[in-house]
Every structure is written in structure tokens, then in C-alpha cells.
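Human:
I keep going back and forth on a fold encoding question. Comparing notes only helps if you start from a blank page. Show me how you would write down a chain together with its backbone fold. Write it directly below this note and I will take it from there.

Assistant:
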Amino acid sequence: MKIAPAVLLLCLAVVFIQDWRFRKIHVALPLVIFAVSLFIITIEKYNLLEIVLFNTGFFLITLGILTIYMSLKSKKFLNPFQHYFGLGDLLYYLAITPLFLLKNYILFFILSLLFAIVLQFSLKKFIKEETVPLAGFSALFLFIIILKDSFFVFQKITLL
């Protein structure tokens, strides 16, 4: 394994550990993940700007719909970062945008949310906080996906 994917895997592991223990991640981690992701993906093969913009657009639309839905449900505007979603989660999901084509990003996003739900319910005995370490669980899921993509021959989800 080369150095850049190893750095990416290390950052994902640190995101998982920090989010699990403290329910927050250091702001430098998503920046490093984004930079390493841009470095790993070959520019000749894909238009990275287009990939990042489409994936970011999907994520922001999804977050906007969540905000509108929750605000309508409570009959007042709710800031999603105060009630449902952490800033670290936002930065993490934006940081991984270069790693996926749009359909794979959507698939990863949905599967990572399901993975987080399953882990949250299965680890309920060990988790003292009420909040879900979404970025951490998603980072663990991406860690597993990258290892799978690196070591197995069947279809890859990431662009690595």
C-alpha cells in the first residue's frame, strides 16, 4: 500500500476514535482527508472539480431537505447543527467527495447512515451519550470499504 492511502486510512481511524470518544473531530482531519483524496485520485481519468461539485450539491440538497422537514415538523426554523447534525459530520461528508462518483457517493451516504444506525443500536449498552457519532461511524465504514476495494477484486465503490 502506498503512503497516501495509508495516510487516508490513518485519518479515518482518528476520525472514528475522536468522534466516538468526544463527539467531535479536529477541523484539520477533514482538510487532510480532502487533500489526500484529491492527491490520490488521478486527474487525467476523472474531472475532479465536477465530481466534487456534484457530490457536494447532493449532500447540501439532502441537508437542506432535512432542515426544511424538521423545521416544518416543529413549526419553526431549526438549525440542523444545533439539533440533528454536527459541524464535523458536515465537514467529513464534504471531505470525502473526491473519492466517489455521484451514484457511488449516494450509495455510500445511504449505506453509511444505515451502518451508523445499526452500530448505534447494537452498541447502545456501551454508548453513554444520546448523540450518534455519525462522522466516526461513517469513517469506520469508509475504512472498511477502502480496505475491501484495495484487497479484493470485485467491484470497487471508491475511485481508489
